[in-house]
Specification:
Length: 326
Amino acid sequence: MKIGKVPENVLKRSIIKQIKTKRDEILVGAGVGEDCAVISLADDEVFVMSTDPITGTVHDIGTLSVHVTANDIASAGAQVIGVMLSVLLPEDTTEEDLKSMMAQVESVCAELNIQTIGGHTEITRAVNQPIITVTGVGKVKKDKVITTSGAKAGQDVVISKWIGLEGTSIIAKEKESELIHKFPPSFIETAKGFGQYLSVVPEAATAVKSGVSAMHDVTEGGIYGALWEVAEASGVGLEIDLKKIPVKQETIEICEYYGLNPYALISSGAMLMTADNGYDLVRAIEKTGIKATVIGKVTTGNDRVLINEDEKRFLEPPKSDELYKI
């Protein structure tokens, strides 16, 4: 396609026509010439907003873009109702590529009952691969907002599913031609399939009903980064049992192959939570069919300690995600 905004006919048939999920709160949504969305909320509700770009992969970029932003909003205890997309595409992008991205976006929107409410799509020489930035809009009752800074000393630390799911799936797709020389096809297909676990919206909804005090979705920097951020935001310490942190064997083996640390690998699909009784929270989440694990305690002071049998070491501030090493 040519440099500049996508033509109106392309906008209508390959973007707007793909937007099928609608919500009553959206008074004005995506349309030709519409620069703003208009959303109606109740008097006792507040907006929750988040924005994220997808830059680390082009595989399933539409799927990832919506999940990542929906997860952020879910971690605040809110229900995501709409997303706005800023899509920057290189010159060699075809309309079929664009339509495929929008089909991925709409698939996740339909699954989570989210409406695409607007955005911008442009062909530009400024990028050499597609980049989607998503801004999500959610709603929540004023007295039900959950923050990253809500962890309190004495509480249990809980994580849902497994760490490294997103990073493992991305690596398996991007590096399949290399991995096939080391691992059987079934192993690679399993790793690629970890993308099905990326949403933390269901466990967040359960956690809110179960008295969770803090939530933080585990993204760039992996579980090490997420633990640090919760502790730093809350002004607390941590004692985390490294061996209790759940990780898939496929993640371990792929990380070993590339010399990566799975605990610092991008991990959408895992939600980090704190609660007075973590085991009650685990049981509530597992009743919905989602795995959850108590991995440690919130402590007083500022020491963020990782315990591995008789060895103890301290967490450090988040660094560049392991994914970028390859």
